[in-house]
Amino acid sequence: MKLPLLTAAISALFCVSAAAQGVDYSKLEIKTTDLGHGVYLLGWQGGDSLILVGDEGVLLVDTSVAPMGDKIKAAIARVSTKPIKVIINTHAHADHFGANEALAKGAAIIVAHDTLRERMARGFTAFNQAIPPSAPAALPTVTYADAMTLHFDGETVQLFHPSNAHTDSDTLVHFKRANVIHASGTIGGDGGYPFFDMGSGGSLEGMVVAENKMLSLADDKTRIVADEGDPASTETLKASRDMLVTLRARVQKLIDDGKSENEAVAAKPTKDFDARWVHQGNFVTGDAMTRLAYQSLRSVTPPTTPR
Ligand SMILES: [Zn+2]
Prior knowledge:
alpha/beta; binds zinc ion
């Protein structure tokens, strides 16, 4: 579907913000945060990565953009001398699989949702940027449809696919022992409004399903990893889900009342949320969120799995 009002505004956004804004990758530093039980957050300025390290080797969630590959490798080397054995790509934004080939080196399996492999194989467009077909060595070698469980280094790593959430190819990654979830972009970085990329098959309805799924996995100590910033708490995740559910009801009522998109924006259905969820420099303002919600509720068939 086309998003004439929003595509221009979101052409330089997070998830691909660093790439879109011409960031000098040589100046970016990776901040490594120990989340316990061999799990580390590798944070930069875009699609943050997670690693699980142990005797068996390294499991890496998201490889960032190609120019960051060496920095990811160096960050891993600071906590493990073992090779990368498993790579998981969470979704179809270029900052989550860009360094696959360099980091897999033909030796690691690459795991992703079926749709992500299809997108990577044929090339696609995200945020108005053409992503060319990936090299064969960069493509996922193991794909799944709904859910998958990996057993690695004593950890149980559960993968879940929420339909049409941040994109159409999301994988939520749950490290059970470490009590960490990679949200695949389904929660806002640094506690901002969560973003769903309708041009890549995302939807408001799917975001609610994804956040409910994560809440079903979480307890009060779970850390939830967004695309950037420190991990969110379960409390923040719950607040995000509640906000999305309320916003969905408000915007649906405006639609049911026959309001146009501009009239819906003028009604300010996010006004009591903006103080908490609009962050400096974040493109997702209250008005942008209303437009996203309106367009999504008018256009996207609600997903059915998983609940
Ligand atoms: Zn993304």
